[in-house]
Amino acid sequence: xxxxxxxxxxxxxxxxxxxxxxxxxxxxxxxxxxxxxxxxxxxxxxxxxxxxxxxxxxxxxxxxxxxxxxxxxxxxxxxxxxxxxxxxxxxxxxxxxxxxxxxxxxxxxxxxxxxxxxxxxxxxxxxxxxxxxxxxxxxxxxxxxxxxxxxxxxxxxxxxxxxx
Length: 164
Hints:
Largest sheet: none
Helix content: over 70%
Oligomer: single chain
Mean pLDDT: 85
Distance between the termini: 29 Å
Radius of gyration: 18 Å
Structural class: mainly alpha
Strand content: under 5%
Shape: globular
Number of helices: 10
Low-confidence stretches: 158-164
């Protein structure tokens, strides 16, 4: 979720007043579907939630559900797309058109924790993510719940400009 938020901080993009809450949910959504299925022992949800077909269907459902609100559905799509890009090469992009094999983890939580504390790439990317989030909080002075809510809605930049 840190990288999509960081991208939304680029001045040209920031002027668009992106709904960052929708961006965050979109960036987490493939794992919101994937991880519970894996934890419940129902197989890997990665096949279902980490492919282009899924993000297109999820986008269309949200687009219709929000009465064609692009301000919500497009950031959601962008978040999901960035998620898939960051998960490459372990992404079944063209499922169900192409078959993919995934190793089923017997104990996913212990695997994830061991990766978190032993894999240098995972450690570095997690630290970078935390640093990005700290940067965003400090750079935007998001010290109060009201400020965070406005920031997530995408209207925070407008408020700062009006106050200046």
